[in-house]
């Protein structure tokens, strides 16, 4: 594993960075997460007002409205079902 040398660190932390030990990557591979996040296309009737709210919120926050709806639905299902 190669070590990255940061050259623009603020003076107060540059010494700490220079003596820091490398940490081996412990996160699961991207493929692991891809398998978990498999999407399934469905048809769903949602009232226009609700879709408009999601689109508006998503647009204001730089999000995709369908991903936002999925996140809200998933969160609800995790907590309530």
Distance between the termini: 43 Å
Helix content: 55-70%
Q: Give the CATH topology.
A: Arc Repressor Mutant
Shape: elongated
Q: Which structural category fits the helices and strands? A: mainly alpha
Q: Helix and strand succession?
A: HHHH
Q: Roughly how many Å is the radius of gyration?
A: 21 Å
Total strands: 0
In what range is the share of β-strand residues? under 5%
Q: Into how many domains do the coordinates divide?
A: 1
Question: Quick gist of this model?
Answer:
The chain contains 4 helices and no strands. By secondary structure, the chain is mainly α.
Structure description:
- The protein is mostly helical and about 80 residues long.
- The protein has one domain: Arc Repressor Mutant (Orthogonal Bundle), CATH 1.10.1220.
- The chain has four helices and no strands.
- Helix 3 packs across helix 4 (about 65-80).
- It starts with 10 loop residues before the first helix and ends with a helix.
- The model has no long low-confidence stretch (mean pLDDT about 80).
